[in-house]
Protein: 1,4-dihydroxy-2-naphthoyl-CoA hydrolase
Amino acid sequence: MLWKRETDIEQLNRMAQGGIASHIGIRLTRLTDETLEGVMPVDNRTRQPFGLLHGGASVVLAESLGSIAGYLCSQGEQRVVGVEVNANHLRAVTEGEVRGVCRALHTGKRMQVWQIDIFDDHDRLCCTSRLTTAVVTPES
Structure:
């Protein structure tokens, strides 16, 4: 199993309350031995002025999933912070819900790299993103 911290979806969703993810309706839905999944509505909170899913909202979903997954791979007092995120927007989405699937590409002692693929309601890939995080230990 990839994860080093014990948790469940309900606990992770509670941890996210009050942050940007909860404000735009992101919900974590599935935690397997190798992946973390979540969904986000395509509505007035996440659309750009022309009615399409805002690319920035897709990036928020991707970075949220990758950061939470990174935290689950850390230990003790370690924290995970984003270093770089990129996204390729491949298909427009105008309604419904999108689903993000986060997988580890690398989980080292100091750096992690996450692949997050985002699918529409018809299971078509609409965005692919990569997040690099640094694993840090707070100074006393």
